[in-house]
Design brief:
The chain is of the alpha+beta class. About 65% of the residues lie in helices and about 10% in strands.
């Protein structure tokens, strides 16, 4: 019976993983169609049959509207997130919006890819009004699906390792959806155009067929998530978490100079990357004159993407993040030189595409932003976890918006609109195209490299120093309770692990002083020492802050020098802000891996406001069992 239950559990977990992964396959393909190929359709097929001067005006109008609407999405997203978070249905709060968002946005995508049924040919003012309304609705419902999809991760599992697996699978299939679209866009649009007109070209009917294919995949992917996953009702989902507004994001950036510089470097990189991806289709069609070979760009991006992601952690053991970022940016800079000087040679272009996609920028930026949390806490006393989580998606939306506008301008300026072919593009127009499509992104990629090397100081070594200094600051305490609003509380502390109890000064290599204790653990599990909630977690996972229901604040630190393991061997069983009960499993850690790396594995617990502690009663140093009462603290609390 036990084996059957275990097999069923494993099978259900596998189905859930596959279902969730399939969700981002269609979701990413939909985003690719909306953010990249919609503008291609607008410039080449939406206004087919209209005078070129009128078509260009409408293209400019649509481009401007799309930029404005996409930028507004940055502000709207927190509102939509709040709506999703407050949804209560028998199917959960995420899955309904996943399906509703996918279905509504897919229907609207198809309508827009019809050219709104040729309305521009009848009345361009009415077309502009209807388009604006439809595109806003499309963007809102797509965002509902986006927020609901990634918001499901903590609802599916409360184990951080399992959440990491779901996130990785979603990213993997998302890459297939995005790059796969690049491989099929020309064959699909050409096929449907041929079916409708008998011509082997990319016409409006082909783009209409393309939108139907993308929409069907998006809806089926959303249904896979809805029927193949289960939202769980657990402590994580019931934990009170602070909502992050766009104001919070910008204030967090302003108050933390490292977040500012990292974000600026990423903005430069991302704008260059997205703009170049947006114009590659025009490059193949009008400069190379080989639109049918555009699939090569998607194939290369897919292969290189699959290679760099697993390669990063291996290289990072020997090469610092800053060097890896520099390698990726240098490759990107070289790629533009291949595009510019080898534009008539397919081999040179292929090498350029390989170099262009060989980047570690996203991984480096995410990790650097995460490490900047402790920097901000040490510098100004503020932790910005939620802000950091919101920054990269916000920057991606901003660059996506500007890219849409940029690509539209390039197409109009270079004459790559309507029924134009490679033969219609003069040398001067190709030069104009190169200035916008390659020289400008080249400058942006150089700026990204300069900013990151010159202004970003959060290296792995620097972060380790910051964490050590921050722990000392927290242990020494700097804030006294306001005596006019103080309560005197008694808190009982229960052993967070089984093993030999020690004094802080008895732990080899420990530099933390203050009020606390240590345990030489028998096993690699850490349990809650009282009823309370998780206040925060250091980005390296080996340190977490907890606060009791009575207001006692403490830090639990696993190992000495384990900051250098960068989270390897540590598994968190919570999210920040999660409520817990005494004895709940908070963390698992690999004792063998810690000692193999040459570090002590002691569990250290100390209290962060010692000046507010009135009296401490601790048991003698001896072997203790997890959950055993080992201390009583009387303290002043502002709870």
């Amino acid at each position: 019976m036990k084996d059957i239950t275990k097999q069923k559990f494993s099978r259900n977990k596998l189905v859930e993983r596959i279902s969730f992964a399939l969700g981002n396959l269609g979701h990413a393909a939909f985003y690719g169609a909306l953010s990249t190929y919609f503008i291609v359709y607008v410039t080449s097929g939406m206004f087919d049959g209209l005078p070129q001067s009128v078509a260009n005006k409408l293209i400019g109008l649509i481009t401007a509207l799309v930029v404005i609407i996409r930028l507004a999405e940055v502000i709207i997203d927190p509102i939509l997130g709040n709506i999703v978070d407050n949804t209560k249905t028998r199917w959960g709060k995420f899955k309904p919006w996943q399906v509703i968002g996918a279905v509504v946005s897919s229907v609207l995508l198809v309508v827009i890819f019809t050219g709104i049924f040729g309305l521009a040919h009848i009345n361009w003012i009415a077309f502009a009004i209807v388009f604006t309304v439809l595109f806003i609705l499309l963007d809102i419902f797509y965002s509902f699906a986006d927020v609901a999809y990634w918001g499901m991760v903590p609802a599916i599992s409360e184990d951080s390792k399992e959440r990491g697996i779901f996130t990785s699978l979603g990213s993997f299939t998302g890459s297939i959806g995005w790059n796969g679209l690049t491989m099929i866009v020309v064959p699909v649009t050409t096929y449907f155009t041929f079916i409708a007109t008998g011509k082997h070209e990319q016409g409006p009917s082909g783009w209409f067929g393309f939108s139907i294919v993308v929409s069907i995949v998006a809806v089926l992917s959303a249904l896979a998530v809805a029927f193949g996953t289960k939202e769980k009702d657990n402590l994580i989902r019931n934990a009170a978490t602070k909502k992050t507004s766009i104001k919070d994001v910008f204030l967090g950036i302003i108050h933390n100079d490292q977040i500012l510089w990292i974000s600026l470097a990423y903005l430069m990189y991302s704008l260059a990357y997205v703009v170049t991806n947006g114009v590659l289709f025009y490059f193949f069609k009008f400069v190379l004159g080989k639109p049918n070979e555009f699939w090569i760009a998607g194939a290369i991006a897919t292969v290189i993407g699959f290679s760099t992601a697993p390669l990063y952690p291996v290289l990072n053991k020997f090469i610092t993040r800053k060097v890896l970022f520099s390698i990726g940016q240098m490759a990107m800079i070289l790629s533009y030189l291949f595009f510019i000087f080898g534009k008539t040679n397919m081999m040179m272009v292929t090498i350029g595409l390989i170099l262009f996609n060989f980047t570690f920028a996203q991984l480096v930026v995410v990790l650097s932003l995460t490490d900047s949390i402790e920097y901000g806490q040490l510098k100004n006393g503020n932790r910005n976890e939620a802000v950091v989580l919101a920054i990269r998606p916000m920057l991606d939306k901003i660059t996506g918006a500007f890219s849409n506008g940029f690509v539209g301008i390039i197409a109009i300026t270079a004459g790559m609109t309507g029924s134009a072919t490679a033969r219609d593009i003069s040398a001067s127009k190709i030069n104009t195209f190169e200035i916008y499509a390659f020289y400008t992104p080249l400058l942006l990629s150089i700026l990204a490299l300069v900013i990151f090397l010159w202004k970003v100081k959060i290296t792995e070594k620097k972060h380790a120093e910051i964490v050590i200094e921050l722990e000392k600051t927290l242990a020494s305490g700097t804030k006294k309770a306001n005596t006019s609003e103080v309560n005197v509380e008694l808190e009982e502390i229960f052993a967070p692990a089984s093993g030999q109890k020690k004094l802080l000064n008895e732990v080899d290599g420990n530099t933390i002083t203050g009020i606390g204790f240590a345990i030489d653990p028998e096993e690699g599990n850490l349990f809650a020492p009282f009823d309370g909630k998780v206040d925060f977690t250091f980005s390296t996972k080996h340190v977490l802050g907890v606060v009791s229901n009575n207001g006692l604040k403490a830090i639990i630190h696993v190992g000495i020098g384990t900051i250098n393991m960068r989270g390897a061997g540590f598994v968190s069983h919570y999210v920040d802000g999660q409520l817990f009960k005494k004895g709940d499993l908070l963390m698992s850690f690999d004792k063998k891996l810690i000692t193999k790396n040459g570090y002590p594995d002691d569990v250290i617990m100390y209290f962060t406001q010692p000046e507010n502690i009135i009296d401490v009663q601790q048991i003698d140093n001896r072997v203790v069992k997890q959950g055993e009462l080992i201390a009583k603290l009387t303290f002043r609390s502002e709870r």
